[in-house]
């Protein structure tokens, strides 16, 4: 018996590249996901030319790892920082989409990038992962906590426990993006409460972006006050101060 229909289908399948997929960022057809070569190039991690404590970017030609002047005089309240790249261009767009424009389709990609940034970190393995919490009201409004979503890849791949109760936001604050650096510090002061489960533990604090550092500083101080033995910070992007 002859199956002309089946034969045509097979020929058609040979002509269409069945392995082709679409880039999750720009939608271009590509052979290897999740990113097309252009987006992959633009989203390359930053591996040199920054201060290892605050992420401040040095010039392109300054590649030797060293602390910036600011961290030498007043070090931030964490002992290590991991991040993917500068908060600019495509990375900035993805971080903002993920946070403000219901960008849940980017979850797997950004989770992977966070996990890779964690693997590159030069710090002892933490005992507890703590995502920067949202206030209950904002969580209900947004539907998800972007920092918690970013943390899940690390906890899964490195088998480090994650706690959403270790740090709580007890006060709903004005969004930090509307404020200047000093106002941000005042706005966020006393907004968190840490649970005694952090006592004696080294904690990895996870957020999406480090801007002025006001939120992460307040979180780190709160964790230290509750007895955390060490605090390290992991973010996707670091903004130029
Ligand atoms: Zn693309
Ligand atoms: Zn620094």
Overview of this protein structure:
The chain is built from nine helices and nine strands. It is 37% helix and 15% strand. The protein starts with a helix and ends with a strand. It is α/β, with parallel strands linked by helices. It has two domains: 1-42, no CATH class; 48-238, Rossmann fold, CATH 3.40.50. The mean pLDDT is 89. Strands 3, 4, 7, 8 and 9 form a five-stranded parallel sheet that branches. It has a two-stranded antiparallel ribbon with strand order 1-2. The chain has a two-stranded antiparallel ribbon with strand order 5-6. The structure holds zinc ion (ZN) (2 copies). One zinc ion is lined by residues 23, 25-26, 28, 35-36, 38-39.
Work out the strand percent.
15-25%
Discrete helix count: 9
Helix content: 25-40%
Major sheet summary line: 5 strands, parallel
Low-confidence stretches: none
CATH architecture name of the largest domain: 3-Layer(aba) Sandwich
Q: Please, what is the average pLDDT?
A: 89
CATH class of the largest domain: Alpha Beta
Describe, in short, the structure shown.
With 241 residues, this protein is an alpha/beta fold. The chain has nine helices and nine strands. Helix 5 packs across helix 7 (146-158).
Key features?
single chain, 241 residues, alpha/beta, Rossmann fold, five-stranded parallel beta sheet, globular, binds zinc ion
Summarize the helices and strands and which ones pair or pack.
Layout: H1 4-15, E1 21-22, E2 29-30, H2 37-42, H3 69-73, E3 80-86, H4 89-100, H5 107-120, E4 128-131, H6 136-142, H7 146-158, E5 167-169, H8 181-188, E6 192-194, E7 202-206, E8 209-210, H9 214-225, E9 230-238
Parallel strand pairs: 3-9, 4-7, 7-9, 8-9
Antiparallel strand pairs: 1-2, 5-6
Helix pairs in contact: 5-7
Bound molecules: zinc ion (2 copies).
